[in-house]
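Z., the sequence and structure:
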Amino acid sequence: MPDRGGGPTGPRIRVGRPSRRVRTLLMTLGVLAVLAMAFVMFAGFWTDWLWYRSVHYSSVFTTTLWTKIGLFFVFGLLMAAAVGFNIWLAHRLRPPLSAMSMEQQSLDRYRMGIAPYKRWLLLAITSLVGLIAGASASGQWRTWLMWVNGVPFHQKDPQFHLDVSFYAFDLPWYRFLLGFGFAAAVLSLVAAALTHYLYGGLRITSPGARATAAATGHLSVLLGVFVALKAVAYWLDRYGLAVKSSDFKATGNWTGLRYVDANAYLPAKTILFCIAVICALLFFATLWRRTWQLPVIGFGLMVLSAVLIGGLYPAIVQKFQVEPNEQAKEAPYVEKNLKATRDAYGIAGTDVQDYAGASDTKDKAELRDDADTVASIRLMDPNIVSPTFQQLQQVRNYYGFPSNLDVDRYTKDGKDQDTVIGLRELNLAGIPKSNWINDHFRYTHGYGVVASKGTTADSEGRPVFTEYDLPSKGDLGAYQQQIYYGEKTTQYSIVGGPQKEIDYSDDSGEKTTSYKGKSGISLSSPVNRAAYAVAFGEPQIMYSGAIGEGSRILYNRTPKERVEAVAPWLTIDGDAYPAVVDGKIQWIVDAYTTTNGYPYASRTTLGDTTADSLTAANNQRAVVAQQNQVNYIRNSVKATVDAYTGDVKLYQWDTKDPVLKTWMKAFPNTVKSKDSISPALMAHLRYPQDLFKVQRELLTRYHVKDAQTFLSGSEVWQVPDDPTNKSGSAVPPYYLSMKLPGKSSQAFSLTTTMTPNGRDNLSAFVSVNAEAGTPGYGKISILKLPTGRTVDGPKRVQSQFNSEPSIAESIRLLRGGDSEVEYGNLLTVPLDGGLLYVEPVYVRGGDLKYPLLRKVLVTYGGNTAFEDTLGQALNKVFEAESSTEPPDEGTTKPPTSSNPTVQAALADAQKAFDQGQEALKKGDWKAYGEAQKDLEDALKRAEDAQAKADKAAGGSGADKTDGKGTDKSGGTGGGPSPSSSPSSSPSSEKSSGTS
């Protein structure tokens, strides 16, 4: 009879033991849970490997992976071995337990409890500390790769005369090793002490000796190791002074030695190093002396010395030697900081020249002509006109443009032309019906480029499009128009399979396509499908019939995240911009190499210095930084991402940068040579905004070269707040083709203004040659305004605009009804010793959902104008007309035609346009709307009459229009039609913004 428990005579009943079936079920569930967890981990690893292989950067994945694995096992095993060995040694050195005290008797039950499991407990403890240490060490893969692959800077620090590479590549690794050593010593000491206590080697309450000789020797050696590591730390701290951060009122985040560092901290660290070495030897000596008296005295002396020598003495030197004569004491060290900071941020070659701030030219007609040639003044603000692009060129709701467009240069008729450009990207929020198939299979990509002239608007204030309609056509020629990778493309798509994708749609219906590129990962394998179903949390990937032969999954589709993934050692600029290059749409991404270990160079916070009024409103413009605090930065890499194939290419831009050379050694064959950049691509490369923002922030203090001036703070500048934005953020730098004083021609430039610290007048105008491939590329120029003359800065100029009675009244009229006035970029242009300010003014009114350019504000030399066109405003400011512009600028003349019906319709169009302009000046929006309707009707009649005439002439005109001018959406030959884009009004060539 089975034993079921019970009384002494009855059957005993076994309680709580589950049946074999239940145990088998629980075991099965446990195994399944383990397998599920293992597959989830495998899915993450496998999908990452497949992605890197698909973009042909598998070496980045394997190098990073094996480095992490190697560091994990090496340092995990070292930590486990150190802790495990000391536990084993403490157990082996335990005393015999013949005389049991009350303390030992209370511990006896713990010793008895763990006795059967000692090996397992030792294995568990060592495994735990090993896992933690290994995981921490694997996160140092960048530090290891930089140390093992580091190349010299061939520049030495002024204090220790060591190559900068020691501080940038070596010192971080040595500090990690030191930190690991401290952790191992402390954990070993704690583990050994607990083991000694558990087995009687240490006693707390028992009478007699508190520790056995064996325990004393063991713990003393561990304490000696700890103190020896502290001695090494003191020695490294000496070099660490060269990259130590400290707040200094004259420089902000100062890096490097000051007077107190060189004359107090440096000798103090040396003395403390010697004391720590002696103290460590005293601890090791307990192996023979078996007493802690001398080591304890030595340790107390070291602590006291750290307080007196390392803390009190430098404070006394600072108080009684430095502060009474700070400028004289700090000047030699400030000079070192000035030189190092300027070198580290690439601003050492900045050209500073005095600028009068007021024109000396008496001939106003000459000034008026100069105003036409000094700059290609951009009236189309790329941060304002995105809604206009959206309304006029979106075409379908499932397309969209970024909130901030980009400025680029394109050549037409042999001349460079500043161009506002945006891509018609996929906007899933506009899909007619959202479901899994539509979101991921049918609506997969955007279509086409839209571009407009940057310097001009049409007669209605709309952009003059140079690339327009769907499919896009215009000045850019033929190119691959599908956009599978873009800034707004943030979710995965499955393409190339049995499910057709929507290319675009017109009056004849949907045009479908199937992706032909080699991008993405094939889903033909069941393993791949299962892995992605788990990775994306989408089980339909496993069994959906929409996935079949040829299906590929696309993800990581924004340009910035693709570049960051294939080059995780780079810091990515916040603004990727598109360009049409050799028949393809390419995203161009600027990338930086950085370090925070450049001796004597002051540190800056990338997140703060690259923030402005645009990044505050658009998180996509924020810089992607591997390390936020840096004191060295180079635009070392130019990257491209193909909008169709997703191919990522990295080009070495700075051929002298040692940080890039180090990473190229660590990841060979990932960065192409600079010679690989084609001329077509070179034409679209530019100086990056984020780098310029970092440099201009440093230039607020480091534009001076004299230590005394630097310390006095009398020449400190600041980046002004954006006067057209209420966020209180810094004004963004602006791209502008302009001619600097003394130069013979315009250059594509990135510009900004500076004001004195705490004031609103202008201190300087700063620009950098942004035109890649030219001899002056990257040259920073500062036009320094005189301190004895007050020159209005952007905020004051904006205030003058707003306070001028006639302008204020005009603004009030423009705001009539429910209209809103939006100010565009306030551009500053040096002109003949003075400064020309130009600001476009947009109106978003009535039923219009987008801003139109209505007025142009101009000021120069105290004269201000607020006119319909830039030319009219310049004429008024300079009281002279341009000799290079026709006298009837701003007027409109209808095109001629031999067809009387067309002539009559065009005459009606001109009349409607004139009536609209008069209504606009009076602020009569009702009459303006009626005039616009009459204008559209007249243009439509002219178009229909011309089409009939062409057809009657034998069809050649109709064929020509169908083939080159009018598509199914109604576009006309020379530009967008009234029905598709109102830019083709009769006065489009005589725009209100012609400069």
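Residues 20-54 form the longest helix (35 residues). Residues 900-984 form one domain.

Let me know what you think.
H.
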